[in-house]
Amino acid sequence: MTATPNTRPKTIIRRTELEKKLGLSRSTIYGKLKLNPKRPGEYDPTFPRPIPIGAKAVGWILEEVEAWLEAQAAKRRGLS
Predict the structure, then answer these.
(1) CA–CA gap between residue 21 and residue 14 (Å, rounded)
(2) What is the pLDDT of residues 18-31, one digit of tens each?
């Protein structure tokens, strides 16, 4: 991946690292990504989407995950 002078290369994290960073289980993470009529409260359209990194592998862009976490903290503080 090539970076221009004003950008840094993106850091990709795998699901296990995402689970540790967020303190969420695998099922909760995937529940946030897809609307399930049986559990509509889990879905979060603002949750970062995974990107394909291989034939059967996905990852999340760390910067997007951190921005989502900041947005969640801002909601708690009443800023959003």
Answers:
(1) 11
(2) 999 999 999 999 99
